[in-house]
Amino acid sequence: MEEAYLEYNHMVIRYQGNLNLIKDLDGCDVLGKSNLFLLERWSGNYDYTLLFLPQDKLSLDFQDEVITLYGDLEYLKRTTMIQVIVFLLYQRKNCLNGIISFHAAAVLYRDTLILFMGPKGSGKTSLSYYFSQKYEDIRLIANDYLEIELDFNRGAFTVVASDSDKTITFRSHVLYHLDHALYQKNTGTDEFIFDKPIKVAGEFADIKNESIQCQKLVFLHVGLGKTKALDVSFKSEAALNLELYKELVHYLRGSSVVAIENRIKIVPCYFNNQYFYHEGMNQIINNILYNLTSSPLVDIAWLRGDLKTIVAYIQKKYLSKIGRAS
User: Fold this and answer.
1) Could you please report the per-residue DSSP string of 217-280?
2) Residues 198, 169: contact at Cβ < 8 Å?
3) Residue-wise pLDDT tens digits, 73-126
4) What pTM was estimated for this model as a whole?
5) Which of 25, 77, 249, 316 is the most exposed place for a label (fewest CB within 10 A)?
6) In the beta sheet, which residues pair with residue 149?
């Protein structure tokens, strides 16, 4: 049986099986988050073992730290099965070390990290880009994904990874209503353009070469255009705690992570959540949720309204003493 090693960020997986399955994965982008690299040799410790055994029927088996993938070689090469397995194992490893991934955009203001959360189209990217461009004291940390090491004992939170090397994409009409100057800068026109994707290279903080630490976290679940008047709910609301819980298990349970074939077809293979999300992991996440919802170092709020009311609220609540960009 052939052997190689897969390296993804700070995780190493020993692969055993036909190397043709993984030979084209060197340097590949894993679900838009980070890159996977192949190592022919590795003398250090590894976190998991991934076995590939040829078989007509596609399936997965988990035992201890060993994952066995069964299936047809040529079919699997057309899918993202390996990338999904690597990504979920990485989330599992991080969670056991107190590092949680968030589907969020984020900016840093002094010692406060503000995370904009919500589904696609909720305004996460537009708000983070707007504030990072509008104020010289605000730094752009993430566009859609970040990992935070949570140390409630020390009262310290550290951003250990983000998608800071990715291009930011938002909709033209959102930026038009948010800030005309930024709209003109990025479109080259004053005329209203509806729903055109605008791509910009964000001026992110250098996560890889700089320690990004903060002492306060602000989670804002935003919903642009949901109501005309501003509607604010805080973390004491039971429903809001449930929303935060869903975000915490967003990647761990694989609820939004699926393998696809040729970019369009979902692979019919069940990811056994009992392995990635076992009872012990559930307790870890519950403890994190309790700390987040009870800590005075954490603010959590739902924000519903139009762009102007949400921006005005954030400015008054969290940025009242900030200096404007020149």
Assistant:
1) EEEEEEEETS-SS-EEEETTSHHHHHHHHHHHTTTTT-TT---EETTTEE------HHHHT-HH
2) yes
3) 999 999 999 999 999 899 889 988 889 999 899 999 999 999 998 877 778 888
4) 0.86
5) 316
6) 99, 158
